[in-house]
Amino acid sequence: MKKMLVMGVSLFIIAAFFGVMALNLTFGSPTMTDMDDYFLRHGQEQTGSNNECTAVVFDFRGFDTLGESTVLFCGIIGVALMFRKMQGGEEYEDE
Amino acid sequence: MRMSRIVRTAADILYPAILIFGLYIVAHGHLTPGGGFQGGAVIATGGALVIVAYNYKEVTGWLKKNVLTGQEVTGLVGFIGVGLLALAFGQGFFFNYLVGSGSIFGIPVPYGINAGELNTAGTVPLMNFAVGIEVWGGLTVVILYMLSGLEKEGC
Asked: What is the pLDDT confidence band of residue A62, given thresholds at 50, 70 and 90?
């Protein structure tokens, strides 16, 4: 019973914390806009890409995409390893 | 277990269409919503459709894991290679050296709202293709591995 009480109180405190933070957010008017403005004004002429999202992902933030595809690669290697192990010692190479 | 003839015929008809749609999303990544990751995922769903509609053994006859893994590696290496090629032009890693150069993907783009020209954006479409090929091979091989458990149940 005591455990439940402690749990409930801490849950309430956490909820109040995040609730107050969420209510204080101002949507639609970010405080720092220099970077966004730069991307929106110069993205098209600097990358030649009409799609601003792709311009950011593949050009301005190319390193991020490199890490993303590396993570995908590592994940697929992990899946391949795991499912190969499942076959119980038998090599699971594709004839 | 093969599904019924109706499902198999539908998969036969739909698979090329899914392939073309996914490649369209990859190729138009710099003009319309989408890009390499999304297009590759669309193509991988086509692979999943064919695997489900046919027998696992029948599919692995022509959807080879070695080829798909090779695609995945080729995509990642190509992506890094396109980025590294900027060093040969005396620029930094991942610099967009092709934009506005007049060569492939190098037409100068008009500023502002325009209809969109496929032959623009420099290295962005090349990287889109590399990532698309990588995701295509990778996700399809993941689906193949995960459905390979079905083989033991006599499906």
From this structure: confident
Task: Mutate one of B142, B146, B147 to test the A interface: name it (highest A CB count within 10 A).
Answer: B142
Long-range contacts of B84-93 (CB under 8 A, 24+ apart): B86/B123, B93/A62
ipTM associated with this complex: 0.78
Counting the structural domains of chain A, the total is 1
Q: Does the pLDDT at position B11 exceed 80? A: yes
Between positions 11 and 70 of B, the ones with CB within 8 A of A are 29-33, 35-37, 60, 64-66, 69
Domain that holds residue A24: 2-85
Determine the Cα–Cα distance for residues B108 and A14; give it in Å rounded to an integer.
53
- Does some domain include residue A92? no
Contact flag B79-A66 (C-beta cutoff 8 Å): yes
